[in-house]
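Anyone? Bumping this.
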Amino acid sequence: MSVQDLTNAIVAGINAGGEQFLEGTLAAVLPMLWLAIIGLHLGRPYILTMIDRFTLRLGADLLWLVYVALRDLLIVSGVVMSFMFFFPDVVVTDALPVTGGLAAAALFGVLLVKLMGDPDHELFAFRLTSVLLFIGALCYFVPYLLGVMGSFPFSPALVTNTNPGLAVGLAYVSVALLAIMGAIAAWYTLRTGGRPEEEEAVTESWQR
Amino acid sequence: MKPDDIATAITQALVQGGAQWLVSTIVAFLPVLWTMTLILHLGRPYVLRTLRRCGLRLGADIWWMSYLILRDALLVATFALSWVFFLPKIVSSAALPITGSLSALCLLIALAIKLSRRVDDDKNAYRLSTAALVLGATLYYGPQVFAVEAASQPYLAGFAQAFTSNTNPGIALILMWIALLGVIVVVGWMFVRTWMAASRSMGGRMSTPAAPPTSKEPVAGAGQ
């Protein structure tokens, strides 16, 4: 073996190991992120009760804004960090939950409902986001606990690198779902010109 | 192999591997930035809807300002990191989406629209910047998902070969130079526009003599 062969072997090791470490870290952080998302979504009544107790309007406004920003930025982060589920090479190489891509698509669906509806004031939109979050959590946690972290006879079927055929198929389905929802979001914002459906003069004047 | 050879190999590997790792980290991070950029740009109606519910001006100001900073800073950061698509050596040696440079150009066009028109007030300007961003994202995601990250899929081999920069370096470099030309044109236009605007506003101010103080204006130290 020459010096150059050894160099190439180490470079390949650094790159492959670094990539797998990054993906493994993302996969390890995602369950926590999912728990935080579910927790913040379900904690809405608690926040509303606290807001009612404020004597100063400023405190109530700030609490609500911090809550909304944290809750929705976590959902955005969840979608962004789940992007690896859409890459066939990653899915075939790493041990990930087999329906992780569908979970990401459900999370993106939540964002779409929030864009087009008003889950904080419309019951139907709130229920829709709750159902999508529930489906997404199921798609993520069931294969994660019973497949990736479990050692049952059926565990290999729930892990991407031991069931690559299904994993790649589901990755394509998830990409298609994401593309359709992305196109709907783009169409909506193009149609409204980036404004909420019901225009209010107050908002317009505030912006100016 | 002697210990010195192993030391040399490790040193070379750290230097070469480090450079490759940096490039691949940027490339791996770009989908994250693109997705965040798109979501924040398309999420404007939702942000406005939340803003409308603020009872106080302060809360609404903080909310809107945070949104604007995050959205526009991400746009700039995504373009800055996309600079990797304009480096000929990296384009021909690393596995990058072949249309990555064109997607960066679309990003710059969206930025130029934001700089030249009031995107948050003018619906058509917002639509234009949205179209540029969506086109850029499509040019980035398509080859990234189905070519660069699908090398293991035999039925996508043809697509992967055609749309990955290091397996089709001729086309990749042509697209890169075209996109670079576009970047130069857009940046040149932005530079001239900023120059003219500054000359107009500052030149006008310098040529106008200072107005004498009126009786309504506060006098320094009057209240002390």
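Late reply, but here is one note on the structure posted above: Chain B touches chain A through 64 residues (CB under 8 Å).
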